[in-house]
Amino acid sequence: MSARVRAVAPSGLLLVRLAPGVGFPVRPRSLGVGVLLVALTLAASVATLTLGRLGIALADLPSALAGNATGKDAFVVNRLRGPRLATAAAVGAAFGLSGALFQSVTRNPLGSPDVIGLGAGAGAGAAVTALLLPGVLPVSAGAVLGAALAMALVYVATGKGFRSPGRLVVAGIGVTAIANALIEYVVYAVERDKASVLKSYVNGSLNASAWDDAATAALALVLCAPVVAALARNLTAGEMGDDTAESLGASPDLTKTLAVLASIALSGAAVAAAGPIAFLALCSPQIAKRLTRASGPHLTLSTLTGALLLILADLASQHLPLFENLPVGIYTMALGGAYLAYLLVHEWRKGAL
Questions:
Q1: 98-153 pLDDT, tens digit each
Q2: How is the chain split into domains, by residue range?
Q3: What is the rounded distance in angstroms from the CA atom of residue 310 to the CA atom of residue 306?
Q4: If you count Cβ atoms within 10 Å of the first and of the last residue's Cβ in the chain, which end, N or C, has fewer?
């Protein structure tokens, strides 16, 4: 069923009508940005499958994706680059949506899951579950529990919940240090060959991605999507303040609780699939907001931006000279660290820190 788009006067919004009586308004610029992000993601996906010595010839790609590949092409699609691409897309989308939810709830551009220790906590939980307590819990469950514990520590340590940007960053640094110390202990305690694999994992890596990893992140997206869709209107109202949101019929406390739980679940699943990839959850919502030049949580655009950024980072990891096969988290850490520095200076000049 095709969607119809028409103008809604006098606001200048477009109404995307999915069915009779079912539709939603969207800004023309946001719609254009969404189309651009989808096109760039498709282009980056094609490049991932076709570039390099093992790349599939562009003319053979449609047949390979349809399941008719044989020999080298079948290996690339089914075992090598196919799972890696799917994992990058799903994990990037999960991190992007997680960051958008958390930044919307805290009304704080620094309120990113990885900046305040959620990613490191999930990584520590996954490491402990996988290597110190194998078989006791699934790795994904350990990641979610680690993320939840990290957020509880940050919430208590700030003394103001998630409301103070400065305290949030300081508490996040402390929780991240604790989580990283636990990860280093696990690396030291387990066998050397397992430790080397874990070391790559805690930097965020797609080098050994399998279809199960993509399914883990994709499942989290599917399960959280109805909750996020139900919260979208309340999150938009909440960005105008709790009193305004309550006057519009939203429940600020319930909205924040559900959004934080969804953010933790998404980040935990993403970390379980690919490790704590740094700064992706921080940058994706901010890039989406700057591309649209509009207020709002930008949940869909942040999801698309996260997927595109991680696919591009993995493409660089596979093909940049001198830096091939580096964990993809090192690329996002380099770019995200520079952006975090800019954001801190920007917030300080505004007097928000």
A1: 999 988 887 777 767 777 787 788 888 878 887 777 778 877 778 888 888 888 88
A2: 28-350
A3: 6
A4: N
Structure tokens at 272: 């379980």
The Cα-based distances of 45 to 77, 99, 263 in angstroms read 12, 23, 26
What tokens does 164 get? 């103070």
Give residue for tokens 């387990």: 190
Specify the 3-state DSSP secondary structure of 13.
Answer: strand
Return the CATH fold of 28-350: ABC transporter involved in vitamin B12 uptake, BtuC (1.10.3470)
Helices (DSSP H) in the chain: which residue ranges? 28-50, 61-63, 71-75, 81-106, 118-127, 139-158, 165-189, 192-202, 211-238, 242-247, 252-274, 280-292, 299-319, 328-350
Residue 95 CA, chain-centre distance (Å), reads 1
Tens digit of each residue's pLDDT (9 = 90 or more) over 297-340: 889 999 999 999 999 989 988 888 766 677 787 888 777 777 77
Amino acid at residue number 13:
L
User: Residue 162 corresponds to which tokens in the numbers above?
Assistant: 């998630």
Total-model pTM = 0.82
DSSP 21: T
